Amino acid sequence: MSEFLLAIDAGTSSIRAIVFDALGGAVATAQQEFTQHYPQPGWVEQDADEIWATTLAVVRRVLAEARLDAAQIAAVGIANQRETTVLWERASGRPIHRAIVWQDRRTADVCERLRADGHEEAVATKTGLLLDPYFSATKIAWILDTVPGARARAERGELCFGTIDAWLLWKLSGGDTFATDATNASRTLLFDLQAQRWDDELMTLFRVPRAVLPEVRDSNGDYGATDATWFGAPMPIRGVLGDQQAALVGQACFAPGMIKSTYGTGCFVVMNTGADIARSHNRLLSTVAYRIGGATTYAIEGSIFVAGAAIQWLRDGLKVIDAAAQTEAIARNASGSNGVYLVPAFTGLGAPHWDPHARGAIFGLTRDTGIAEIVTAGLQSVCFQTRDLLDAMRRDGAASACTLRIDGGMAANNWFAQSLADVLGVPVDRPNVIETTALGAAYMAGLGIGLYQSLDQISAQWGCERRFDVQMADGTRDTLYRGWKEAVMRVLAPSPADTAASHPA
Fold first, then answer.
1. Which residues on neighbouring strands pair with residue 73, listed in sequence order?
2. CA gap 265, 311 in Å, rounded
3. Cβ(246)–Cβ(191) under 8 Å?
4. Contact yes or no for 93/175 (Cβ under 8 A)
5. How far apart are alpha carbons 237 and 171 in whole angstroms?
6. Strands 428-431 and 267-274
């Protein structure tokens, strides 16, 4: 058997393809960004056909870079941005609308109505999720209600829904595979966590026809093969995971209580809870960590909508930097943020606030404030949001983390990693391979094809490249974090009760 694995990491802003060897070493990498569309404030869309074309391009490029033919790849694994919603024609494979991205807020009012009608507790009990436009169900209904004739076509079985994994599986297989895995299904608001199946009551509540939903398979299941047309020979597809679950696998967080944090476009802190569904009382999410051989492992998760996206905004929006890599030197040469706080609530706030109406702001500006302070505040905002999530997990009864394993693009920034350890008050471990999302997809494919016999075999390959120990005094940490909490309180949207009190009849 070949010992080369191909991972397709379909992220929010780019597609990355990496060929790994059996020891988890990267042989070759290719990456390409694709277009983000913002048709209205709070709306975020992508062109599913562009995502597919980008995927084709990077896979062809990485095979050429690795000097491998498709026939030399043992298996393919896919990791994907979750919740992002695509609907396409079953007959033609054409999308009927742009993909609605997980960051999109257009269905906030729908979620609020469902919450006001008393549905959130029942939904949370079944799905582990909250009523928020972040998840797929309300996005599906919006497309079906907006595109002329779509709902009737969906009822007739003419349309398919998928998160990006299902869309790419359909395209890669030439339309032979219409499936998703349990981790992605668990992010739709339509999947019963305990029963591990699509739920009829949830489909009725969200008005989603069963006919559009893909088959749900194990994370290391058989997903067919790539059509030989695309790469010259078929490649078995044996691993599919949502990107954050893939990072959990890539970080070898297989024991209950182990925790990782990924810093990409957003930030996601995920803790393995084993065979038990952990129910949060602090507005965190219960989700599937992975499902192998029919056995489900669960996790608890905190989601931050804007992490690396804040740095992208500094580059593309404010144009105060030319490249994300510049931020480390800028922050290192600055004397802190000097009381400046950037709250990057560009598309609302995620856990633990879950406020879709919050908007971003910068506080603490003075005549002395310059680019260095704003850049530093942007990096620190990600650290503070991570602290919000870890504190919520502790309030839910989780043991205080001894260490935090980090990954993703921002993890390469040494200043950020050190600031993270200081703000959290716990050591931070950075692995030898920081592209752990892709690595986790490769590992799952390797399990699926029999290249690895157990999770223990994978765990033995994890290594720490650098540990960042806490250097900040407790008093300084507490002062900085109090300032952050005050800044967040100022961007939160007023509750209906607050609004009524300020505008009495």
1. 4
2. 9
3. no
4. yes
5. 12
6. unpaired
User: Which tokens is 293 given?
Assistant: 């051989």
Nearest to 134 by CA among 350, 392, 358, 388: 350
Whose CA is closest to 60, among 246, 177, 225, 235? 235
In CATH, which of 3.30.420.40, 3.40.47.10, 3.90.550.10, 3.30.70.360 is domain 4-243? 3.30.420.40
Q: What is the pTM of this model?
A: 0.86
The residues facing 342 across adjacent strands are 362
d(CA 433, CA 260): 14
Residue pair 122/188 in contact (Cβ under 8 Å)? The answer is: no
Q: Say if residues 355 and 305 touch (Cβ distance below 8 Å).
A: no
The tokens of 161 are what?
A: 């829904």
Phi-psi region of 486 (alpha: psi -120 to 50; beta: other; left: phi over 0): alpha
If we measure between CA atoms, which residue out of 474, 416, 29, 452 comes closest to residue 238?
452
The HSE-up count of residue 66 (CA atoms within 13 Å, CB side) is: 27
| CA–CA separation, 68 and 413 (whole Å) | 32
Return the sign of the alpha-carbon dihedral for residues 84, 88, 93, 94. Answer: negative
CA angle centred on 191, ends 133 and 119, rounded to 5°: 55
Give the DSSP letter of residue 37. Answer: B
| Mean pLDDT, each 10-residue run in order, the chain (505 residues) | 90 94 93 93 94 97 96 96 96 96 92 93 93 94 96 96 97 96 97 96 96 97 96 96 95 91 87 89 91 94 85 86 86 81 87 84 89 91 92 78 84 93 94 91 95 93 94 92 94 60 42
**pLDDT of the residue at 228:** 95
d(CA 503, CA 279): 37
Q: Where are the alpha helices (DSSP H) in 340-426?
A: 371-395, 414-424
Q: What's residue 504's pLDDT?
A: 43
Domain locations along the chain? 4-243
Neighbours of 87 (CB within 10 A): 24
pLDDT at 399: 63
CA distance 241 to 243: 6
pLDDT for residue 500: 41
Q: What is the pLDDT of residue 1?
A: 63
Q: Which of 415, 453, 434, 438 is nearest to 260 (CA)?
A: 434
Residue 101 makes CB contacts below 8 A (sequence gap 6+) with 12, 36, 44, 45, 46, 81, 84
Which sign, positive or negative, has the C-alpha torsion 186, 291, 297, 434?
Answer: negative
